[in-house]
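Input set for joint prediction.
Command: fold jointly, output tokens.
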Amino acid sequence: MLQQVGAFDPVSKEEIAGRIEGLKTMMAAQGIDFAVIMQNVDMFYFTGTIQKGLLVIAVDREPLLFIEKSLTRARLDTPLDIIPIDRDRDIRKTLEEKGILRGTGGMELDVLPVRVYERLKSILGHESFVDVSPLIKELRMVKSSYELMQLKKSGAIVSRVFKRAAEVIREGVSEIEIDALLVAEGRMRGHQGFLRMRGFNQEMMNICVFSGRTGGMPSYADVPIAGVGVTPAIAQGSSFFTVEQGVPVIVDYGGGYNGYITDESRLFVAGALKDIFRKPYEIAKEIVEDVAGFGRVGINATELFLRVYQRVKKAGLKEHFMGHGEGQVSFIGHGLGLEINELPVITARHSRILEEGMVFAFEPKFVFPDVGAIGIEVDFIVRKNRLERVTDSPIDIVSV
Amino acid sequence: MLQQVGAFDPVSKEEIAGRIEGLKTMMAAQGIDFAVIMQNVDMFYFTGTIQKGLLVIAVDREPLLFIEKSLTRARLDTPLDIIPIDRDRDIRKTLEEKGILRGTGGMELDVLPVRVYERLKSILGHESFVDVSPLIKELRMVKSSYELMQLKKSGAIVSRVFKRAAEVIREGVSEIEIDALLVAEGRMRGHQGFLRMRGFNQEMMNICVFSGRTGGMPSYADVPIAGVGVTPAIAQGSSFFTVEQGVPVIVDYGGGYNGYITDESRLFVAGALKDIFRKPYEIAKEIVEDVAGFGRVGINATELFLRVYQRVKKAGLKEHFMGHGEGQVSFIGHGLGLEINELPVITARHSRILEEGMVFAFEPKFVFPDVGAIGIEVDFIVRKNRLERVTDSPIDIVSV
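tokens >
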């Protein structure tokens, strides 16, 4: 049935094998003897399926993929051999027989809830575990050519949505109406339905539309602009506020194709852009174009951040950069892939030499409280001599 | 700015105080001296805001709400006093001064990741914690009249979406196209944007449209019908399959208003319903109507399940009930509120006497692999002498 759909590119056996070998190498270097992987995104990365089960990777063995439910679906999804189990505790016997439960184990301690972890330790009769997530994040940071293809298909949905945005954004239309129509546009083009953000309490919308003052509301979320939303229970995203003459509308949209997330923002304006937004718009555009040429393999992410920050300071826009007041965040870019908060982070704080195949969203944005916000976001792939755009969507502000 | 939106009913100081008193009473009975609450949904329930911070409830004190970010937003959202902090570790001093860090603490160990938990213990210099989530779930199980009002507003979005469904479902239209148009319809009516499901790896769509065979694909998800989706990375929800003559289309949609989730399913068919689906449709309808009269305060959820199960067995539909083969699940209903998997669970396994104000989705569904699926889902409020429907949307299959 899945084959008939033809809506995604299945991952190859070789691709999966390469990823698992990559993790084994990192584990060996860190003295981790085996890892038990359960989070759905990591499972998908290492197996091609998110069906209920556990993946055990020992440094000196073939991977063991235990599946509880659904076996039918897992067999369609993964090129790996499957060991069927009735319940999670069935894995202990197999692991003992294979002599795997020795030394230091790894689990995804950044996302695994305490009760799940305690249960696993008791099932395995093994107490010594460290956090294997930093290694998985490091591995997932550099994308294969297969992954870059998925990201480009995800980006194609984004480009289509921005085209449609120019048709639906008009003075007087509400953020939430624009939101609804654009999410529908993306979904009809094959958007996977939702996006993923790693970590406790991390949630996100597929789209946020900011029509003006709503872009200036600070938020719990670690983003420069989060919006007001329609309820304090969500407290982010589009609201019932409407598009006004001369105030830029930011459409921040996340594509999702076969698990892979893209994240770009474009600008639209009804009438002539108000004066206060003109300079920051030009600076944002200049920064995106400058960084596309400056960024490349071997550049440190901190250099990239500081180059941008110098330009922003020189323009006298420091106070408005990446939020305002308590809403200000300390990064200008974030890695992307199966989750929206991957490595690398482009900030002054984390030294990170850019490598071929890293992918990140780059988002110079400026916030003017009680007035509005303006900015651009594009996704870049790190190449030898430049940064390559993931989408081909133009970045200029669109008059509507 | 939020006041201008007027899109939700703020929670009152008295409502919040009642909830906190409720938890204190349960904590005292269990010997828990204080609780540290961090999960966004529980924070919202006890404070009215999900801004970044921690809520500390000690059995013999006023609640302490520490907020890191955003103070501006938190002050708009919550009727509680706020203690501003720069970072989480700032709370220790206040808690020590007030003599709170004594005895047994409680944390949400079903959702709190290991690393967050370890960090909190180290910050507090306190080691003795038990899981306070079972108490919170028990408390949240019975809804106040304010909460029932929110649920009914959430249900009004659902009713509107089902009306629109009759206009967009036609032979040859794909599941994903129907999905896109109906999600947009709900969002324009004020849907909050996404739904929440408690627990590790728990994810869900706002809508699932099943056009036939896709309803028979088993899944990792603990639901009778999950669909195929458009990628193994999500592996649930609508697909590119299209509506066929005589095969029922199930639209399973979750409303979301001010945090409160509703979850109902309706049936649509192009042409005459195929014979195989006629009897299960009649049985599903009969079961919903029967249970609405039979269910009430004082009935055990297990009685309710067994009554339904007897009817299904008598009809010879046991094998198809609530999934098929490995896809079969053991419940026929689940609690609803701020999360979609609340208490009570309507199953043979968990004894639970129904109380006034409990709310649950009730979903007799039948799956015929390789052919299709059929069923109805409605949300009920438990009342003294009956079950009250949350929405007024008719349950009959609609010809399109």
